[in-house]
Design goal:
Length: 248
């Protein structure tokens, strides 16, 4: 069971559907194994419902509903047309053959695609990640400048946040670093420690520009972390500073 949890503000934003994909999926992964935070999210959802119940309705003109429906139908028709055009233009082995890359199409198609992705996904992965990962952690195409720390870019970064897995090799220590912005870290497997504590699967940690740390993976296995950052890491030790130009 997790010892470190997302802040209440983050859980509130999750309940209100306000988080972007990167932070939303990361929070959903923590929730999958944390009953304590699930309970809070249910309360916040209930609170949101109560707020709607007690709010005063505003009069809208009688044509508003039909205009909304017309716009929704038009959006859906445009989306189906775009999907058909891109399929026709495609030749040979293209992204349309890749169930992890093709995310356009009508709602019915997306539902089918979603089911196909889930049925082919590795069941050991947390449910919120299953449709986005081609394989379990050990078989992902990791990349990096050193064996001690490797990364895998997750396909749902957005304008504000970068979502990435980091793999710290068993027993390895990262160069000392701080953060230019916020870094939300969720431990997926293995464990690591720094001066502020020991972090195990399910633990959710926030580091910011006031955090100077040097995480070290425990000896017995590699540590896989799901990191969401709004700015790159900034290495502060001697060797770390030499690595700064290589960081994305
Ligand atoms: Zn929790």
């Amino acid at each position: 069971m997790a010892n470190y949890h997302p802040a209440d503000e983050l859980l509130m934003q999750f309940a209100a559907g306000q988080l972007t994909n990167a932070l939303g999926i990361q929070t959903a992964c923590h929730l999958e194994s944390c009953q304590q935070c699930q309970h809070k999210v249910r309360l916040y959802e209930q609170l949101g419902g109560d707020l709607i119940d007690i709010s005063t309705p505003t009069e809208v003109d009688s044509g508003a509903k039909s205009r909304l429906l017309t716009n929704l139908h038009k959006l859906r028709a445009d989306s189906a047309e775009t999907s058909a055009t891109s399929s026709n233009a495609a030749t040979g082995n293209t992204a349309t053959d890749n169930t992890f890359a093709n995310n356009t199409g009508a709602i019915e198609d997306l539902d089918e695609l979603y089911k196909k992705q889930l049925s082919g996904a590795n069941q050991r992965l947390p449910r919120p990640l299953r449709r986005f990962l081609p394989d379990y952690y050990e078989n992902l195409p990791w990349s990096g400048f050193s064996k001690s720390i490797q990364s895998y870019d997750l396909p749902f970064s957005d304008d504000q946040y970068t979502a990435r897995f980091y793999k710290i090799a068993a027993g390895s220590e990262l160069p000392q670093h701080t953060h230019r912005g916020n870094e939300f870290t969720l431990v997926m497997s293995g464990s690591f420690s720094d001066l502020s504590g020991d972090y195990n699967p399910g633990d959710f940690v926030l580091a910011d520009s006031s955090t100077h740390h040097q995480p070290r993976a425990h000896e017995k296995e590699d540590c896989i972390c799901f990191a969401v950052t709004d700015a790159p890491l900034k290495m502060t030790g001697f060797f770390g500073r030499m690595l700064n130009p290589f960081l994305k």
